Amino acid sequence: MEIKDLDYNIQYDEATKTVKFTGSIRLQNLPAYEPIKLFLRDVAKLCQGTLLTMDFRDLQFVNSSGITTLSMFIIDSRKSATYQIKIQGSLNVSWQSKSLSNFKKLWDQVVLEIS
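That's the STAS domain-containing protein sequence above. Prediction below.
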């Protein structure tokens, strides 16, 4: 499964249960993020009873609407609690250490790896 755009790519690897985000995501508003929201919901269905890894290390930028969409996904995941989430980030990308750590505040079961 994959979402391709000129500026970004979101790819799900079923073998490793990993969603990899690359590029820069600058969509206009929350409704514009609906395809990404649906993509993540579909991935979540495939990860029932396992660990879902979300790899943001190659995502250079995501705007506030994107952070909100991802936050809502974390909250929905917490409510269902049928799988675990591991977040991978990079210290070399300025927005990641602060923004990704907020996901742990939304759901204390999130595993956070920022290096």
